[in-house]
Amino acid sequence: MRVPSFRKPSSWWLSVLLALSPASLLRGQESELPLGLNLPTAEHLQGWQPAIRFTHRFTEAARNHSKDLYGLDGGNYPGFGLDLGIAAVPGLNAQVYRTSDDKTLILALQEQLVDAPHLRLAVRGERFDETVQRTTYAFGTVGISGAAFQLPVELLAGPLSFSLVPTWLSRTTARDQGLFTAGAGFRWRITEGQSILAEVYPRPSRLDAATYEQGYALGYRFQTKGHRFTLLATNVSGTTTHQVLGGDYAGGPRPAGQWALGFNLVRMF
């Protein structure tokens, strides 16, 4: 009796099998909260997955070193928000966020448009309302409302990612008119659960360079399956789009040497 012989599958069939493997199907579909340090990313929460975010920004600069525990003895602005994936529209996320600085409330929608191996792209729209009484000070007006539209773009290269967030703001603290600007970010994933992040918030061209500073933030992130903890140093006092990218919020970013500490804590379910 002849023993049947089996030929090895051709390379073409191997390619098909690999393409249909679970690992391949899940590539580019990992669920993640679309948040860097302060800027939105082009990531998204899948299905109906919820996540909560806590933010904390200390108001006192860390320049006094251990005398004031690097600014931790001073005041702070906490924030709390809920993000939710919308399964009915793949790639769509909704966000409600409230921060104590000027009692600002954010309502936002973000849709991921592209999720390729080396490129991610999303579109985001939000409304912001400072719910304190409308008052005008020397540095500008508080108690304002407005809108922001953003186009987060990320280029991925192994453990490195580079992001650009073109942004249109309907108004800022000091100017009752719209402006275009863009923030930029960088992330280096050192290990599976640890990353170094940096963001730059350029001064809008309409603002006087002699009065307003450039903004920046630098952070370290440690993550587990359900938690993201980020410790950061920054010279901007806010966390929302109009606070960070407007360039003039609360008088604008501090001088570079007067950075303060802050942190973000995310819980994904």
Describe it for me?
- The chain has 3 helices and 15 strands.
- With 269 residues, it is mainly β.
- Mean pLDDT is 88; it is low at 1-10 and 12-28.
- The protein is globular.
- The strands form 2 sheets. Strands 1, 2, 3, 4, 5, 8, 9, 10, 11, 12, 13, 14 and 15 form a 13-stranded antiparallel beta sheet that branches. Strands 6-7 form a two-stranded antiparallel ribbon.
Brief summary:
With 269 residues, this protein is mainly beta.
Question: Uncertain regions: pLDDT < 50 for 5+ in a row?
Answer: 1-10, 12-28
Order of helices and strands: HHEEEEEEEEEEEEEEHE
User: What coarse outline follows from CA principal-axis ratios?
Assistant: globular
Average predicted local confidence, pLDDT: 88
Q: Report the portion of residues in β strands.
A: over 45%
What Rg, in angstroms, do the CA atoms define? 22 Å
Structural class: mainly beta
The largest pleated sheet is described as:
13 strands, antiparallel
First-to-last CA distance = 60 Å
Number of helical segments with 4 or more residues: 3
Give descriptors for this structure:
mainly beta; 13-stranded antiparallel beta sheet; disordered N terminus
Helices and strands in order, then pairings?
Elements: H1 11-19, H2 22-26, E1 50-58, E2 76-86, E3 92-99, E4 104-116, E5 119-130, E6 135-137, E7 140-142, E8 145-150, E9 153-157, E10 160-169, E11 179-191, E12 194-201, E13 215-223, E14 227-234, H3 241-245, E15 260-268
Antiparallel strand pairs: 1-2, 1-15, 2-3, 3-4, 4-5, 5-8, 5-9, 6-7, 8-10, 9-10, 10-11, 11-12, 12-13, 13-14, 14-15
